[in-house]
Amino acid sequence: MSYVKNQSINSALSRSFALIDYNIHNDVHKRYEFRKQMVLNDESLTKNEKSEAIRILTKNYDLNRLIFNEGTKRICESCAQECLAITYCEHCVRNYLKVNFSNWSSGNDNIDNLLRECQMKTITPYLIPEWIPYNNIKNIKYLAKGGFSDIYTATWIDGYFMEWDYKEQRLKRFGDQSVVLKKLRNVENANHSWLEEASSHLTISNKWPEVVQCYGLTQDPSNGNYMLVMNELDTDLRKYLQQNHNQHTWKEKIQIAVNIIDALSKIHNENAIHRDLHSGNILFKDKFFLSDLGFCGPADKPLKSIYGNLPYIAPEVIIRKEQTYKSDIYSIAILMWEISSGYPPFSNYEHDYNLAVNIVNGIRPKIIPGTPLEYKNLMIQCWDANPSKRPDIFTLWRKIREINLSYQNESLTQPEENNNFDKENYTKSDKLFTSKLHQFDNLPEPRNATEEEQEAFYSNQSYNFHIPNS
User: Fold this and answer.
1) CATH tag, 235-460
2) Second CATH level (architecture) for the domain 90-231
3) Reported pTM
4) How many CA atoms within 13 Å lie on the side-chain side of 369?
5) pLDDT, tens digit (0-9, with 9 covering 90-100), for 119-153
6) How far apart are CA 338 and CA 249, in angstroms?
7) Are 263 and 398 in contact, with CB atoms under 8 Å apart?
8) 152-193, pLDDT tens digit by residue?
């Protein structure tokens, strides 16, 4: 879903999404009509704001028609092929991109083939990965060091493809665009599986708007380093919660969880695993987006090591078992706790062997007083030590939607306030909260801790939280 810098429109679009009953609005057409009617009935919007909101909904409707292959096809007046999109022709867009293959090259056949393959899967004009010449990027400024990438902000002179111009039969660009550059290390040592994964994730990020868009790749000619060129957003979930947590009601907290779980469902729907979910990789700009899919880790990761942010890594992965969809579900549970508390998990513990042992032995973040029972039970199920007892993403998505719909309809009781809020135990350095390589030996098989073991672990800790009523 595309969003604009208008809080009234964004709020209306969010409300229309939150109130969808998927048992009733069970296809893309019904959901579109429901959301459109909600916008038209929204008295908080001006006439122009309603028009803009419906334009955004229609843009998203076109995308969903192609993703789910639903709707009546029409004959394109330009190429005479059957197309599903209403506001453009997907075949015209792909043909335009194909004709231009000869006009660009990265100088690396693998990269060229990767990008061309992705472009031939294009389903909408505004989600197209491409090779971006380095001289089209200006105002490059160092921002930070990620787990295995250096991060810069910059301006992309041309900007991304924005829409299809029927009259001129070409893609139109946005113009100067603020972007983030992520310098990839050791790509020259990347194996075939890394390139396959890169292709998969580029396709995902340019198919589902819930994933931070990767506009493509560029290369610094001074050192040969490849860089991902990505959409620049405002902040990440961790900082967002630190700044806004005390103002959030459970209605708002659950909506955040819904957005994140919805985004992960898109990734799992593509038969892909994120592998590195944590609050620093969930970005915000009017809504939440998933970022840093698995291939942003080290291309030459040692076989016996694991990569990630330790408190969010599933216990079976910590002991070096294979990552699965259920590993992502564990990470979601930890994120659900973080949304409930406003703080990163285990932030007052070193992210070391001792913490790894505790996680494998079933220690989990202490549940916050006042957490809604339905939310609490779902979170506990998702962080079970046995992956087979965790729900799959589609079951999780259905359950969190049901909880959310109940809250939107105000049929659940809001928790009481707890005014004994103590921040003392949540002041560790941010350096603990990035993804990195870990290697732990001689760990036991994962298990769930007893209530007594949980209490003993936290016996010397103070966990008092304040959650406002709606």
Assistant:
1) 1.10.510.10
2) 2-Layer Sandwich (3.30)
3) 0.86
4) 11
5) 999 999 999 999 999 999 999 999 987 656 788 99
6) 14
7) no
8) 999 999 999 999 999 999 999 999 999 999 887 655 555 455
